[in-house]
Amino acid sequence: MSTYENYHKTSQVYDKTRTAGGVDIILNAMEEGNLPLSEQVLLDAGCGTGLYSAALVNKVRRIEAVDLNAGMLGMAQEKLQSEEKQGRISFHQSAINSIPLPDKSVDAVMINQVLHHLPDDADSGWPEHKKVFNEFFRILKPGGGLIINSCSPEQLELGFWFYHLIPDAIKAVQEKTIGIDTMADQLKSIGFSEPRQEAPLDLILQDEAYFYADGILDPDWRSGDSIWSLVEDKTLTDVLEKTQNLQKSGKLENFMLKHDQTRKTSGQVTFTVAGKQL
Ligand SMILES: C[S@@+](CC[C@H](N)C(=O)[O-])C[C@H]1O[C@@H](n2cnc3c(N)ncnc32)[C@H](O)[C@@H]1O
Question: Disulfide engineering: 20 pairs with which of 55, 92, 119, 238, CB 3.0-4.6 Å?
């Protein structure tokens, strides 16, 4: 469960601004597995409203979708009810550090934009991440693959134009975000292969909604990015006022374009792919 985002509330509006970005990267990684894609069982860890499961359910044999939040899971179940009836997807309300699936039961695990919600930090050595990666290792069949989609601490700084308005929240989320190298070291210490990492520069988490400059003024738009839950009330009031002033003076679009430049070279997300060796 996220310690800061109210996913019961967010589940109602999450799909307004979020899409399943990077599905091609996930498919490419799965195609390196032992079995043809259409025979593979995929775990969607922290499935949320099921955006990624919906994009992949017709490509694989079956999906096991896990999320701790009943609101998010309910939206996923609603979206995929006919596939659930056909036995193509099963839903589990569970924490991802203790998943109700047997050892060596899935061919691939994907985890999209979930890790920064774990109650963890660098000072304690990221023990929750380790528990979760160990759980994935337990559930994966030998030869299976793990695909992690997360933002690096650097991408949080450079990849989102509106974060310039909320520097304290960037710091707060960076403290909850494991570095890409530390993650790779953890994975190897558990027994995964040397991870491969890729930051697709054209992938934008909110798709076209990212470029709605006045989205900041819309609570539903802000709900599409959990960083807003880390913004203090007083700061939010100031940010809304600044955004309204930029809008009134016709400068909001330029503000967005100016602060979006660094995203083009940093990207917003990194995919980390590692295998459980045979
Ligand atoms: C930002 S959403 C991502 C949802 C989905 N993977 C996507 O990319 O559209 C994060 C999700 O992780 C879930 N989550 C956070 N911590 C979790 C945990 N420890 N165990 C299971 N689910 C968790 C939340 O309930 C939420 O649905």
Answer: 55
The ligand 1 atom at the shortest distance from the C-alpha of residue 7 is 25
For residues 172, 135, 62, 9, the Cα torsion angle rounded to the nearest 10 degrees is -30
Distance 19 CA to ligand 1 centre (A): 14
Please give the C-alpha separations between residue 58 and each of 83, 141, 145, 260, in angstroms, as whole numbers: 9, 21, 19, 35
| pTM of the predicted structure, to 2 decimals | 0.96
Q: Residue 96: inside a domain, yes or no?
A: yes
Is any atom of ligand 1 closer than 6 Å to the C-beta of 276? no
Name the nearest CA neighbour of 225 among 151, 278, 276. Answer: 151
Query: Which residues, including other chains, have CB under 8 Å from residue 235's CB and lie 6 or more apart?
Result: 166, 168, 169
> Which residues, in sequence order, are bridge partners of residue 196?
273
Ligand 1 geometric centre to CA of 103 (Å): 22
Cβ of 76 below 6 Å from ligand 1: no
Domain residues for the domain of 91 are: 7-275
Question: Hey, whose CA ends up nearest to atom 13 of ligand 1?
Answer: 46
Residue 1, domain member (yes or no) = no
Mean pLDDT of 137-143: 97
Cα(175) to centroid(ligand 1), Å: 18
User: What DSSP state is assigned to residue 33?
Assistant: S
pLDDT greater at residue 268 or residue 10: 268
Residue 2 covered by a domain: no
Does 44 map to a domain? yes
